Amino acid sequence: MEKRKVTIPQLEEMKQAGKKIKMVTAYDYPTAVLVDKTEIELILVGDSLGMVVLGYEGTVPVTMDDMIHHTRPVVKGAPNTFIVGDMPFMSYNISQEDAIYNAGRIMKEGGADCVKLEGGTVMASTVKAIVDAGIPVMAHIGLTPQTASALGGFKVQGKDAKMANEIIEDALALEEAGAFSIVLECIPAQVAKVITEKLSIPTIGIGAGPWCDGQVLVTHDMLGLFDRFVPKFVKQYAKVGDIIVDAFKQYAEEVNTGVFPDKAHSFTMKEEELEKLE
Ligand code: KIV
Q: Domain range spanning residue 39?
């Protein structure tokens, strides 16, 4: 069946029908083209690009211009997939005007179908302001990588009842503010289950267990393209990095030994033309 871009109401219908929502990240045209060939409904142009593509330690240095630069080719490559554009650190934290302006840039200049931003109850009024401006917002709570240093590092959140209740409150506040979906990152599966049952909007988990309405993984993690560290919640579906290194090694060896390029990969000219050469 031909793939059609999912709509926000259809995502809510999927939740009601118990159909799982699938999301992966992409930051470039070729990856987007590949995702578009699958039934995966959503692509997140995540600010994780700071780590897995730009080589930074974390997501904090990622800029609005980085996000727009990487969103455009993804939109071009995946016309039948719903594109979520991540809002980078400090692009929505200073003022609501700023947040609306930057969310607008991700839609207008990047071409995304919605934006995603991190933060719980404290961000609810900002989420409402962006939604009121006509921009759909996916929220993101639990472990929020942009503020990982304030959280004491990349750690599972909500392991005790007090913190878990705060995360549940965050989810309810964001739904009330108008978010159409919420990413739950690195929280106990039981907490994600409670949130998923309490909300009418879909939850999308990463390190949040099997009971979320959907799942998201960072493509470079799941394909084995980023091995600086592999979080516990990541399943590696392929080891593409190893395949690439083997190909580079074989190429280098064949260039060294003259095996490549051979006749099949070279151009020739006719003998009579060759004879005319000085
Ligand atoms: O930037 C990203 O890839 C994300 C996912 C971890 C959800 O926010």
A: 8-242
